[in-house]
Specification:
- This protein is an alpha+beta fold.
- It is built from 14 helices and 19 strands.
- The strands form four sheets. Strands 12, 13, 14, 15, 16, 17, 18 and 19 form an eight-stranded antiparallel beta sheet that branches. A five-stranded antiparallel beta sheet has the order 5-6-10-8-9.
- The protein is globular, with a radius of gyration of 21 Å.
- The model has no long low-confidence stretch (mean pLDDT 96).
């Protein structure tokens, strides 16, 4: 039988077990609410290391979790008493400015990529927190500031290298393993371990962006105005709305610290004058804000704007839905449940997924929600572990109340405690059966099951 030492001898990266002095640090996840104790953590540095770790797990019968950035809400990047395939040491980024493509190793964060591409005046459409891992974000779909103009992250994926459950290393793109390429674009980590991504990049340099905050008494007015404004807004404008609390830290104005608020966070990919003009129909229709920090900034600054407020180790509880229509009744429910949020960091965001996202057909990728208008997230967040129960209860009650106003399914990267089969079937619609059959082809034993799992089901 193989042993931990045998795996260590087969890998270039290190293997951390429970006796290792770095074990507690190595097993820590972004969500401090999740406390899992894996038997081994394989810190891979290349695809061969990943293949060796997979072989070791198959031989020993250990359950496997795959971790990139570790941001998974339900902690799917770890597993009790199993083997974590940790990709975080695989951090290379190579920009081909002539072809406007970026080769990204699977352990990179979106901030790693932003740093590399910004020097060329390019960017890949990612999320809104730069410490997020590229791998998990991409495999779930990828929603962010550039989605309305350039689509989801998966809409900009050109190819991927994947280590399969049987240890084979393959490339997936439109001409090689095309069915696998279809599945990894939104189907999560169900089919293998992606070790390298090739993305299309777009011209993005200085942008007009930042937050605008209004007092909570104006929340309904802001949300209704935003609802009417968004469909006509130019696609160069990424703009989402949130219900939150003014952080009690600099540089937020001291007189507003701890105040409930409604915020619009914008990012216009273009000149400042056009950005101001694009936002004018919304801002001119609203009361004076508490503060308006829209300005010309480098795109990576917008991407990392939330990082200082959301360090690793906070308690998180997430629930989400796709939203087709933001009705007055839904707005009233949102306000009722955010008036007394359980902590200063808790929030609700509505991220737009219209524009370029809608120009991809529902069956072209595993991501099916090509007609939804927003992806909603409800997040209970606090640094104190003693508040974990309160956060979860608030998020669940809020989601239960607002769910009747939502569309079908939700963004898999926002699911915590609701990723059961019924929920996933609603999320993937009639793509679900194809995903289950694809799972039967590439992972018939469901080796990769520590994820938003789609069990293998061959076509009848």
């Amino acid at each position: 039988m193989t042993t931990p030492n045998t795996l260590a001898e087969r890998m270039r990266g290190r293997v951390v077990d429970r006796s290792h002095p770095d074990y507690e640090t190595a097993r820590a996840l972004y969500n401090g609410m999740i406390d899992k104790r894996p038997l081994l953590i394989a810190e891979c540095v290349d695809a061969a290391d990943v293949a060796a770790a997979i072989d070791h797990a198959r031989t020993t019968g250990l359950a496997v979790a795959v971790r990139g950035g570790g941001h998974s809400g339900p902690g799917l990047g770890s597993v009790d008493d199993g083997l974590v395939i940790d990709l975080s040491r695989m951090r290379g980024v190579r920009v081909d400015a002539e072809r406007a493509t970026v080769r990204v190793a699977a352990g990179c964060t979106t901030g790693d990529v932003d740093h590399a591409t910004h020097a060329y005046g390019l960017a890949v459409p990612f999320g809104i927190v730069s410490t997020t891992g590229v791998g998990g974000l991409t495999l779930g779909g990828g929603i962010g500031h550039l989605s309305r103009q350039h689509g989801l992250t998966i809409d900009n994926l050109l190819e991927a290298d994947v280590v399969l459950a049987d240890g084979r290393i393959v490339t997936a793109d439109p001409s090689r393993n095309a069915d696998l390429f279809w599945g990894i674009r939104g189907g999560g980590g169900n089919f293998g371990v992606v070790t390298s991504f090739l993305f299309r990049a777009h011209p993005v340099d200085q942008v007009f962006g930042g937050p605008v905050f209004w007092g909570f008494e104006h929340a309904a007015t802001v949300m209704r105005a935003y609802r009417e404004f968004l469909p006509e807004a130019p696609e160069e404008l990424g703009v989402f709305v949130g219900l939150k609390t003014v952080p009690s830290v600099d540089p937020f104005p001291a007189e507003h610290h701890g105040r409930r608020a409604c915020a619009v966070i914008a990012c216009y990919n273009g000149p400042v004058d056009r950005g101001r003009a694009a936002l004018a129909p919304l801002l001119d229709a609203l009361p004076a804000p508490l503060f308006n920090w829209l300005d010309e900034v480098p795109f990576p600054a917008v991407q990392s704007m939330f990082d200082p407020l959301l360090p690793k180790g906070l308690q998180w509880y997430w629930r989400g839905d796709f939203v087709d229509e933001l009705t007055d009744a839904a707005i009233a429910e949102h306000i009722a449940h955010t008036r007394d949020m359980p902590s200063a960091l808790s929030l609700m965001h509505l991220y737009p997924i219209n524009g370029a996202v809608h120009r991809v057909e529902p069956h072209d990728t595993a991501w099916h929600a090509r007609s939804a208008q927003w992806a909603m997230v409800i997040a209970g967040i606090d640094p104190d572990p003693a508040r974990a129960g309160d956060l979860a209860r608030w998020a669940r009650a809020y989601w239960s109340a607002i769910h009747d106003h939502a569309g079908s399914g939700g963004y898999v990267n926002f699911m915590q405690g609701d990723g059961d089969r019924t929920r996933l079937e609603a999320t993937y619609g009639d793509n679900y059966a194809r995903l289950a059959a694809l799972k039967a082809k590439y992972d018939p034993a469901n080796f990769f099951h520590e994820n938003q799992n789609i069990p293998p089901e061959p076509h009848a």
